[in-house]
Amino acid sequence: MPTTSTTTSHPTQDHRTTPAVRLVDVRKTYPGREPVHALRGISLDLRAGSVTAVVGQSGSGKSTLLNCAAGLDSPSHGQVLVAGHDLTTLRPDDLTRFRREHVGFVFQSYNLIGHLSAVENVRLPLVLAGRVPDPAWQADLLAFLGVAELADRLPGELSGGQAQRVAIARALITRPAVVFADEPTGALDSRTGAAVLQVLRETARALAQTIVVVTHDSTVAAAAERVIVLADGQVVDELEAPTAEQVTAALLNRAR
Ligand SMILES: Nc1ncnc2c1ncn2[C@@H]1O[C@H](COP(=O)(O)OP(=O)(O)OP(=O)(O)O)[C@@H](O)[C@H]1O
């Protein structure tokens, strides 16, 4: 199990009271001949160390919400605070630096670099930030995620589940305040997807990591402790530790 004792520079003033992520009346309108109101005033607090799933029908605003919360896109209105820092006031360069140091990403398509080995992919965020990998942390992380033996393989030599576990290690190597995962199990069969999600949950517990997962899969969502249901750019339901059936029922309820 990875240790969490080495130096870190989380900007959190007090992680017990500052939510890992706070959204205040976040709205996002995509301009155009017919503007799209993708987010219509979302306010949320995500507790540090929590695992939250965001579900909703296609087009309900899940990816837009994740992109705004992660500082990949800027809202048209409202505030986004990550570990106490207001991303909406940061200049682009500072935002890029903040993201690099304090936010981790896991995508459906893994986004591993094909000509780099698994371990080189994992180290990449540190290299880009000009930081030196901590060998003990790196070894712990690879072992925890069950990919230590695969460290020298190229991404093309990994199964989907292995590639996603490498991508999770890459998201965690910088010890980010929050990890955002957009359909992380979408490219996997349901058994492998469930195993990857289990890894994310265990990671959250072991590292007191805050994780936000966007998914359309009720089984995946049910592995989170809290499920936020979006419809038409608004939060329409919130479920605490639901079963997959309860998530499906909430989604169907909103589809009517
Ligand atoms: N770059 C963009 N320009 C214009 N409209 C956009 C853009 N990105 C998303 N939208 C629109 O915003 C709304 C929300 O899209 P979003 O991708 O956030 O939904 P989603 O819930 O993630 O959908 P899915 O499950 O299909 O991925 C949709 O109506 C979509 O068409």
UniProtKB/TrEMBL annotation:
It comes from the Bacteria. InterPro entries: AAA+_ATPase, ABC_transporter-like_ATP-bd, ABC_transporter-like_CS, ABC_transpr_LolD-like, MacB-like_ATP-bd, P-loop_NTPase. Keywords: ATP-binding, Nucleotide-binding, Transport. Residues 21-251 form the ABC transporter domain. It comes from Actinotalea soli. GO terms for molecular function: ATP binding; ATP hydrolysis activity; transmembrane transporter activity. One of its GO terms (cellular component) is plasma membrane. PANTHER family: ABC TRANSPORTER RELATED, IMPORT ATP-BINDING PROTEIN. This is ABC transporter ATP-binding protein. It holds the Pfam family ABC_tran.
